[in-house]
């Protein structure tokens, strides 16, 4: 019963994370490609604001969903006796809805400070770090540092438990972790690490410039551009991680590829 509930809850957050990754591919990325080809933004102000909003929705939605997945895995592995009550079907759906409500609430202030602007360095309408130092610091702390801290705590506790189980610490009382749960945990842990690695440079640059505006002249343009595209490349990596580490995803990938190949042949 716990296994079935855990699977459903885990899948709900993974699907939500996949949706966050797809948001940028549906609308903002085509406009970015158009801007690159024309060497400038030609879509107009409204599309710029919508594109920036959806990019923010994707980024913040991703980190909030990754945080939800980490909390879910932590409760399932470290507090299994309370898991069924905490992550029932209805509760899980409420958590997913809450993630997206918080995501939208986190983006709305951008319109009040007018921070969604076109940046010619990256051909994108995105969050302008130079608009307000205080707001930039708040964004980095709330949208990156705080979630990363929560996820790190959850996965650290899980790793400690996994190591204890592997070393057979307290064999009479140790919880059992089956291989399937361990593989799922490792998959989502890799997703988290890649997100942190890809987004850390851009957030650290923003934080540094917000704390000392003089650094904006010291940071090379190529470094900012590289960190920006590195961050948004993260949306493409999750599907690769799922396919590399999860047997069910690999099987579905092969089935889809075969269907496409047969269709074209």
Automatic annotation (TrEMBL):
Organism the protein comes from: Etheostoma spectabile
Keyword DNA damage carried by entry: no
Positions of transmembrane segments: 12-30, 50-71, 92-113, 133-163, 184-202, 222-245
Subcellular location: Cell membrane
Coiled-coil regions listed: none
Family: Belongs to the G-protein coupled receptor 1 family.
Membrane topology: Multi-pass membrane protein
Domain of life from the UniProt record: Eukaryota
Protein name: G-protein coupled receptors family 1 profile domain-containing protein
UniProt-listed Pfam families: 7tm_1
Molecular function in Gene Ontology: melatonin receptor activity
One biological process term in Gene Ontology: rhythmic process
Function statement: High affinity receptor for melatonin. The activity of this receptor is mediated by pertussis toxin sensitive G proteins that inhibits adenylate cyclase activity.
InterPro entries for the chain: GPCR_Rhodpsn (IPR000276), GPCR_Rhodpsn_7TM (IPR017452), Melatonin_rcpt (IPR000025)
Domain G-protein coupled receptors family 1 profile: start-end pairs: 1-242
Record keywords: Biological rhythms, Cell membrane, Disulfide bond, G-protein coupled receptor, Membrane, Receptor, Transducer, Transmembrane, Transmembrane helix
Residues annotated as signal peptide: none
Any single Gene Ontology cellular-component annotation: plasma membrane
């Amino acid at each position: 019963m716990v296994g079935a509930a855990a699977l459903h809850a885990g899948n709900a957050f993974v699907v939500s994370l996949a949706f966050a990754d797809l948001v940028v591919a549906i609308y903002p990325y085509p406009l970015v490609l158009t801007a690159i080809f024309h060497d400038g933004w030609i879509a107009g102000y409204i599309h710029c604001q919508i594109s920036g909003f959806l990019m923010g929705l994707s980024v913040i939605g991703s980190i909030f969903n990754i945080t939800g997945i980490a909390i879910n895995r932590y409760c399932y592995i470290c507090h299994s006796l309370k898991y069924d009550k905490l992550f029932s079907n209805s509760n899980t759906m409420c958590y997913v809805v809450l993630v997206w409500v918080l995501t939208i609430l986190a983006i709305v202030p951008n319109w009040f400070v007018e921070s969604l602007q076109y940046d010619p360095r990256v051909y994108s309408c995105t969050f302008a770090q130079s608009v307000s130092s205080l707001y930039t610091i708040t964004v980095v702390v709330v949208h990156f540092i705080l979630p990363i801290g929560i996820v790190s705590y959850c996965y650290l506790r899980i790793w400690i438990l996994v190591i204890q189980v592997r070393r057979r610490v307290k064999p009479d009382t140790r919880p059992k972790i089956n291989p399937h749960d361990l593989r799922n945990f490792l998959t989502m842990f890799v997703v988290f690490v890649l997100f942190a690695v890809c987004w850390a440079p851009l957030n650290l640059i923003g934080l540094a410039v917000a704390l000392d505006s003089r650094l904006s002249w010291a940071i090379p343009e190529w470094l900012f551009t590289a960190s920006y595209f590195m961050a948004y490349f993260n949306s493409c990596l999750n599907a690769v991680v799922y396919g590399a580490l999860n047997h069910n995803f690999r099987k579905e990938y092969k089935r889809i590829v075969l269907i496409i190949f047969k269709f074209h042949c």
